[in-house]
Amino acid sequence: MKSPQTVPEVAPTGAPKLPKVLDDTLANGLRVLVVRKPGVPMVQARLRLAIGKPKNWGDGTIEGIASETIKTGTADRDQLAIASELQRLGGSLETHADNEDFVVFGNAVASGLADYLRLVADLLQNASHPRGEVDIQKAQTAQGLAIAHSQPPVRARYALLGRLFPGHPYGQDIPDPASVGAITAAQIRKFHSSTITPKGAVLVLVGDIAPARAMKAAHAAFGVWTGTRRATTVPTPEPLAANPLLVVHQPEAVQTNIRLGGRAVGRKDPLFPALQLAALVLGGGFTSRLNHNLREDKGYTYGAFAGLSHNQMASYISIGADVQTAVTAPALVETLYEIGRIATTPVTEDELGAARRYLAGQLALSIQTQAGLASYLASLTAQGLDLNYLRELPAATERVTVDDLQNVASTFLSPAALSAVMVGDADVIGDAVGRLTPVEVMA
Hints:
By secondary structure, this protein is α+β, with helices and mostly antiparallel strands. The chain has two domains: 22-222, Cytochrome Bc1 Complex, Chain A, domain 1 (2-Layer Sandwich); 245-442, 2-Layer Sandwich (Cytochrome Bc1 Complex, Chain A, domain 1), CATH 3.30.830.10. It is built from 15 helices and twelve strands.
């Protein structure tokens, strides 16, 4: 019989080796970042425009439709020509927009970068948003919104955001599908001409490319892009007020979607490293406290989570699990227990060390691929950071002590600092949950 083997200690995490970034700003205000990452003969592109508006926000549907129909035609190219060009370049082009950002992302073979950038520039400058394509996209958007209204996890997310940011664009509910019908192609074109402009936009290029050559191609493609718009600032959310647990009624639901959340700090804040580690210990991975309790020990859910999200003017933490309807109240008790425990008692040194290693590993993995590096760099740039953050954050977490983590958890993860929502059958869960905390039911 073999004797037990000792598991070797985990080696210390080394500082990541960061690539060089070629950074330049065109005369029109477009900032271009280029990183050479060989291995695959491709280039990843990420172009982001901040479009936050302090007044007349709308519900984001115009932005979403514009982001889709921007790919459907220009004065010189119809949708088939655009698709054929992308196929020739071995590439892809996707878009996303909401009330805060307009993002164009995709890839192409490295040898076709100049042509790919010219295509993207043509769409940004000259998209015609044909009426027929706008009508098609309106129908698809309305259908997608109708589906979203029927999805409990989606409703739970929007309900939580409404609690965290009442009266603010960040807290808007899912748009009404019926509202899409009134949108016109003229509105889409007006949005494009007044908003899709180069000043303040950021283009990130990552791939098997010579940075100087890629920068030259970006200048050639986007240098003639013109247009200005009034500088805008997203309003700062008002302080969060206490409110009862909100139960969004989902008749005959077999599960309850439990969500808790609160305001947090952004990546630049000195408290962020400790808060990030606290979120990881609480619910950031399979071995986290919440997952161990609710999934492994109690069998209430397939998985529980806790994590941080960031907008331009506010960050927030969200905590949650989807549980069987019959165990909704006990699951809430256990969730509040774990939140209260991390807010009032120190974590162990082993938990803190594991969270540090997990975070360092996540960061290292996030930049291993061209796509991952491009997306991460674009995200950091939008928050006023650069790739040095990937070295600075792990170093900062090494300085976090058990006391530091408890102090930040007591502020941001205290049950009293969090709002709670549920999507489930209020007729079944309402009485039991009401014995634990005041409840407000929404049909």
